[in-house]
Amino acid sequence: MDRTAFLGRARRRLQGVGGPGLVTSFPATPASGTDASPERFLAALRAVNGEGLLVARVALRDAIATALIADDGGQAQDMKRSAVVTPDVSDFAAEIDAALSDAGFEVVRPATGQEWREHASMAAVGITSALLGVASTGSVLIGSDANSPRAASILPETHLVILPVNRLVPGLEEALETVAALATTHSAPFLVTGPSRTSDIEMEMVLGAHGPRRLYVCLVE
């Protein structure tokens, strides 16, 4: 049977058959608890090789610049001194642009998906927000849509997240409920837990193997 005939037969057999709906609520687990404090989130983030701090908005510019300068010791990184900035951090655009200028970075805001991939692959830093942060694991949930193109989170060497502190939730249960709610509007939301890492080679931990080697989260009060 050729492909066209096979698919036609499958469509006829499945016509009118509905699949199960997505689970939209999840029971709390003891590991998650009820604590969604910044202190818990930052402790969990550091436990998975991430970095971050709690900062007042008036100090955000200096915090971003300090984090980026500390990343390279104040030295230029050859041709990789640009930063891609996603639309979902537009509320903090003034602080971000000033901080990137202070740290010697060129700000890039691509217009199309192809441009995002091209510029993000050459950028030293990708700056995004997140839909929420999970206090029990130090994870951030990236929406992966037009306001937060996936390339900005996975292609640059450093991923810097600007996250309002009121978006913290205690555990993965709340994150999964949010993912279920995004099913019809977002193609591939994903959780980021620390920098990319692997220990496949000689059982030694290597950071940045399949994505950013550094994850830094600014929790904004």
Write the layout of secondary structure elements.
Elements (H helix, E strand, L loop, with lengths): L2 H12 L23 H10 L3 E5 L4 H13 L9 E4 L7 H10 L3 E3 L4 H10 L2 E4 L3 E3 L4 E4 L7 H5 L3 E7 L3 E2 L2 H10 L8 E3 L4 E2 L7 E2 L6 E7 L1
Parallel strand pairs: 1-12, 2-3, 2-4, 4-7, 5-8, 7-12
Antiparallel strand pairs: 5-6, 6-9, 10-11
Helix pairs in contact: 3-4
Describe this protein's structure.
The chain is an alpha/beta fold and 221 residues long. It contains seven helices and twelve strands. β2, α4 (93-102) and β3 (106-108) form a beta-alpha-beta unit. α3 (60-72) runs parallel beside α4. The protein starts with a helix and ends with a strand. Mean pLDDT is 88; it is low at 73-79.
* Helix fraction by DSSP (H/I, runs of at least 4): 25-40%
- Biggest sheet, in brief? 6 strands, parallel
User: How confident is the prediction overall: mean pLDDT?
Assistant: 88
Could you give the order of the helices and strands? HHEHEHEHEEEHEEHEEEE
Residue fraction in strands: 15-25%
End-to-end separation in angstroms reads 62 Å
Shape: globular
Features:
7 helices, 221 residues, 12 strands, 32% helix, alpha/beta
Give a short summary of the structure.
It contains seven helices and twelve strands.
